[in-house]
Design goal:
207 residues
């Protein structure tokens, strides 16, 4: 019973804040949602650009172009009921911007002529080499999840978050976490479930 009361105290300490998914809020042009969207996906787009051979200057330009396109098209985005549907859509936009940039750079270099121009042409990533599917390494996806968790962190009390970290991020068994924190196994499961559910609510179709 005492451990059940501990769970009740943890839940009371949590903010209990509920919000629509990040994607839903961004569709309404919520400025905070857009800031969170850029913070969440900007580094992943930069990762994709790097995998396709773009330098930091070109990557910065592509990121701006991608979010500009997302802003124009988000209202018509139709999520597929599968994991990563938004990422797939975002990668399609990003890959098109990378190809457009490569073709434009090649045209400009060809128009200039001379050996310097030829060097610039060869320095541009071959548009055909841009992969059809997103070139995301496991580490980049883990970092994306970590940023998503960071965006909902303040909604939960320290103790609740520590239990979640141990049970989910560190992969410690439910029994061991319960022992470490002096709570019941049911409390650990419920805390883990509440925060995972909130993360899914926050990210919506983004993951």
């Amino acid at each position: 019973m005492a451990r059940d009361r501990d769970l009740e105290k943890m839940m009371e300490a949590d903010s209990g804040m509920t919000r629509e998914s990040l994607l839903s809020r961004a569709r309404r042009q919520d400025s905070l949602a857009w800031a969170e969207l850029v913070d969440l996906y900007g580094p992943l787009i930069a990762h994709w650009c790097g995998r396709c051979g773009l330098d930091s200057h070109a990557t910065s330009d592509v990121i701006q172009e991608v979010f500009s396109a997302v802003s124009r098209s988000l209202a018509t985005f139709q999520p597929q009921r599968r994991e990563g549907s938004f990422r797939a859509w975002l990668w399609t936009i990003t890959s098109n911007k990378i190809r457009d940039r490569a073709r434009q750079t090649a045209r400009n270099a060809a128009g200039e002529g001379g050996s310097t121009a030829m060097h610039r042409i060869h320095a541009v990533a071959d548009p055909i080499s841009v992969p059809d599917s997103e070139p995301s390494e496991e580490g980049a996806i883990n970092e994306l999840l970590a940023r998503g968790m960071g965006q909902i962190r303040e909604e939960f009390a320290e103790r609740s978050w520590e239990i979640f970290q141990r049970a989910v991020v560190d992969g410690v068994t439910t029994a061991k976490v319960a022992e470490e924190f002096g709570v019941s196994a049911a409390a650990v499961r419920q805390t883990r479930s509440r925060i995972l559910r909130r993360l899914r609510e926050h990210l919506g179709d983004l993951m």
